[in-house]
Design brief:
- The chain is of the alpha/beta class.
- It folds into 2 domains: 18-226, P-loop containing nucleotide triphosphate hydrolases (Rossmann fold, 3-Layer(aba) Sandwich); 237-417, P-loop containing nucleotide triphosphate hydrolases (Rossmann fold, 3-Layer(aba) Sandwich).
- Helices cover 34% and strands 13% of the residues.
- It contains 16 helices and 14 strands.
- The chain has helices at 25-33, 41-51, 66-85, 102-115, 132-140, 150-158, 175-180, 184-192, 209-218, 249-260, 272-284, 298-310, 343-350, 371-381, 399-402, 487-498; strands spanning 56-59, 95-98, 123-126, 145-148, 169-172, 199-204, 223-226, 237-243, 265-268, 289-292, 315-318, 333-336, 360-366, 386-388.
- It has a 7-stranded parallel sheet with strand order 3-4-2-5-6-1-7, with helices on both faces. A 7-stranded parallel sheet has the order 10-11-9-12-13-8-14, with helices on both faces.
- α3 packs across α4 (102-115), α6 runs parallel beside α8 and α9 packs parallel to α16 (487-498).
- It starts with 24 loop residues before the first helix and ends with a helix.
- It binds one DNA strand through α6.
Length: 499
DNA sequence: AAAAAAT
């Protein structure tokens, strides 16, 4: 705690304890069991405000402990109200927590369930991609707290598995992400189902004009809580970028992973196909790698995440499905295989490391055509990222070639479920079930003749030195800022206003 | 330009 830099820690709440908040002994017990004694800054600020019943606009990045910041006081309020007026036989939904991605919903739900462990409150999580019937049964049995992704929640409402007419508290977690993903209409429909009289909490990693507009629409007289400068990168994350040619990016990632003998790394790819391919390639290199992205089934996504958390997988190759919110703690390193198209996503991605007092490394690979993206990122984070040299990097040189790997047959479709020769992770454990009716996404490369484009698997390609071709198409770095003002969002917000 | 999410 002594090496904290001067930013990001306002009015040092170091002496505050959870026991100062007057939380129920049942909650306090769960906190003590998990070793939580001192709240993080956002918890110290949010908990008293939420307990007062105020609406909250919270700007907090992941890793700041915001989940506990809202769920602890919510649980406390539910307990207090239950004692006063609730018939113990009924369990209407009284708190609703909305999250943008399934994984985030699951993780919030795990936390909530932990904090509720010694209370009579029941919670559950609902999200798409899995059988709806078990979820329906649980909710028909009665729960006070529901954590949900918006689409599946509406599905349950339509099926009359759940009534939202008794919801007293609404949380919108990662609200900026929900906007990005086009959830605004769903949010509007859900909110229309809620009682007018309720407490609203909205959390967002960034504080854009659109988020402020959303807050003005949905929150009433909110208390604004902001921890750390928005868009600031974690102080303890060491950032470096390595420039390579486009065709050497994959080799560079493999090189970094091998040379540093990295475990527990997330590698971010901009595309689902790129993530699958890179994971397969790393597996071919003998690394324990797995991919997680939106074209995987929910079972595969959860299996990959769990295997990564348990340490059975060292390298998780992810799209931005994993950029925000995922509470994977103590990651020593994050690698950007692609620079993100949105500079803000860079902040979210590297927020996976350097958390909770630990230091971290954020390594990014980029090529000529990404100069503009890099400039955008540096502008956003208001700092210049160190340009590094990849020591000992010889593109194309890899262990598998020494083992005669280049004449290996191409991996089957669904090969990510295959075990790497080193044994270990069985991935999605799908067995022989390869055809999930989803065309294209994870399909193996077709070895059709002399194609030189990106479809060819890098790990099957013999090494050829990078041509100095470098199509210099990136000649106009300035201007060309299109940034359309998203008329759809504006229109929707305008429509909300009128109501 | 890409990703995520209800079916």
């Amino acid at each position: 705690m002594s090496d904290i830099e001067t930013t990001a820690q306002p009015e040092a709440p170091a002496q505050v304890r959870f026991s100062d908040f007057g939380l129920s002994p049942d909650i306090q017990r769960a906190l003590t069991e998990q070793g939580y004694e001192h709240p993080t800054p956002i918890q110290a600020q949010a908990i008293p405000v939420v307990l007062q019943g105020r609406d909250v606009m919270g700007a907090a990045q992941t890793g700041t402990g915001k989940t506990a910041g809202f769920s602890l006081p919510i649980i406390q309020l539910l307990l207090a109200h239950a004692n006063a007026s609730m018939s113990p036989a009924r369990h209407p939904v009284r708190a609703l927590i909305l999250a943008p991605t399934r994984e985030l919903a699951v993780q919030v739900a795990e936390n909530v369930a932990n904090y509720c462990k010694h209370t009579p409150l029941r919670s559950t999580v609902v999200y798409g991609g899995v059988d709806i019937k078990p979820q329906a049964a649980i909710m028909r049995g009665g729960v006070e707290i529901v954590i949900a992704t918006p689409g599946r929640l509406l599905d349950h409402v339509e099926q009359k598995n759940i009534s939202l007419s008794q919801v007293q508290m609404l949380v919108m977690d990662e609200a900026d992400r929900m906007l990005d993903m086009g959830f605004l209409p769903d949010l509007q429909r859900i909110i229309n189902l809620l009682p007018k009289q309720r407490q609203n909490l909205m959390f967002s990693a960034t504080f854009s004009a659109e988020i402020k507009k959303l807050a003005a629409t949905f929150l009433s007289n909110p208390v604004t809580i902001e921890v750390a400068r928005s868009n600031a990168t974690a102080d303890k994350v060491t950032q470096v970028v390595y420039k390579v040619t486009e065709e050497n990016k994959r080799d560079a990632v493999a090189h970094i992973l091998r040379q540093r003998e990295l475990k527990q790394v997330i590698v971010f790819s901009n595309t689902k196909i790129g993530a699958s391919r890179l994971a397969r390639g790393l597996e071919q290199e003998g690394m324990k790698a797995s991919a997680i992205h939106g074209d995987k089934t929910q079972q595969e996504r959860m299996a990959a995440l769990e295997a990564f958390k348990r340490g059975e997988v060292d390298v998780l190759v992810a799209t931005d499905v994993a950029a925000r919110g995922l509470d994977i703690s103590d990651l020593p390193c994050v690698i950007n295989y692609d620079l993100p198209y949105n500079a803000e996503d860079y902040v979210h991605r590297i927020g996976r490391t350097g958390r909770a007092g630990a230091s971290g490394d954020a390594i990014s690979i980029y090529s000529d055509k990404d100069e503009r993206l890099l400039a955008d990122i540096e502008k956003l984070i208001k700092q210049t990222i160190k340009r590094g040299e990849l020591e000992g990097f010889r593109p194309g040189a890899r262990a598998s070639e020494e083992r005669g790997g280049s004449d290996r047959r191409p991996p089957r479709r669904g090969a990510e479920g295959e075990r790497p020769q080193g044994g270990g992770y069985a991935g999605s454990a799908n067995g022989g079930y390869a055809g999930n009716g989803r065309p294209g996404a994870d399909r193996g490369p077709r070895p059709s003749g002399p194609r030189r484009d990106k479809v060819d698997p890098w790990f099957l390609k013999p090494y050829e030195p990078s041509r100095p071709s470098t199509a210099s198409t990136t000649t106009t770095p300035s201007s060309s800022a299109p940034s359309k003002p998203k008329p759809r969002l504006a229109a929707l917000l305008g429509g909300l206003r009128k109501e």
